Every structure is written in structure tokens, then in C-alpha cells.
Amino acid sequence: MALDEGREACAAAVRGFTGAVDDLDELALLGASRCHGWSRLDVVVHLLDGWSELLGALVSPVDAAPTVDAASYWTAFADGPGG
């Protein structure tokens, strides 16, 4: 995927997310989400924490060369939780 295409896909995902939660009031955020056992607020906090980690990692310099690319990174999780 080209950088510009990836950038726009990420921006579109963020716009979609914010569009989905912008109009939720506090009571609605406490309601059940589609993630079993999680409130909508739990999901929002989880995603914001993940984005914070991602953005921090993107600007953190490292000395070593990458050992995986964007596609091969996920093969470690192919079997799901617990292997």
C-alpha cells in the first residue's frame, strides 16, 4: 500500500470512529458495546490507548533494522490467544 493511500485509510478510520462516538452522551457511553462484557466507554478508552502507543512508537528511533513488515507482523498472532 502506498504511503498516501495508507495515510488516507487511517484518517478515514479515525473520522469513522469519531463520527460514531461524537454524539454519545455519558449515559450512552456506559451502555453495552458489541464487545462482550465491555461498555462503549471501555472500547473508546482501549482504542485511544492503542492509538497513543502507536503514535509513540512511530516517532521512537531505534538502532536495529526491522525484523518484520506490516503484513508478516501479524503472523505471530495467527493462532489466536494462547497459541
Automatic annotation (TrEMBL):
Domain Mycothiol-dependent maleylpyruvate isomerase metal-binding: 11-78
GO molecular function: metal ion binding
Protein origin, superkingdom: Bacteria
InterPro entries with a match to the protein in the record: DinB/YfiT-like, MDMPI_metal-binding
UniProt protein name: Mycothiol-dependent maleylpyruvate isomerase metal-binding domain-containing protein
Protein's organism: Nocardioides perillae
